[in-house]
Design brief:
about 80 residues, alpha/beta, three-stranded parallel sheet, 3 strands, about 15% strand, globular
């Protein structure tokens, strides 16, 4: 897989695929995670520039991960 610079985090695979297509059409190298383990792996092993997170994502505790990333200052999160 190419280096990922656009990461989508959502528990709905259909939403992930749609957003990946849109991101790729805009020139990003996009990947999606539907669970916490995949999210962490993709984030740690790539130079991610953009993260789109479904905050109420089941089982992911996305708001907690977002807060943690915000504290680390690695990526701007809004």
């Amino acid at each position: 897989m190419d280096e990922v610079d656009f990461l989508i985090v959502d528990d709905d695979p259909a939403i992930c695929e749609l957003m990946k297509r849109v991101a790729k059409s805009c020139g990003f190298s996009a990947a999606a995670a539907t669970d916490a383990g995949t999210f962490k792996d993709l984030y740690i092993n790539n130079d991610v520039k953009v993260i789109v997170v479904d905050l109420p994502c089941r089982g992911l505790m996305a708001s907690r991960y977002s807060a943690s990333l915000r504290r680390q200052g690695a990526n701007p999160i809004s």
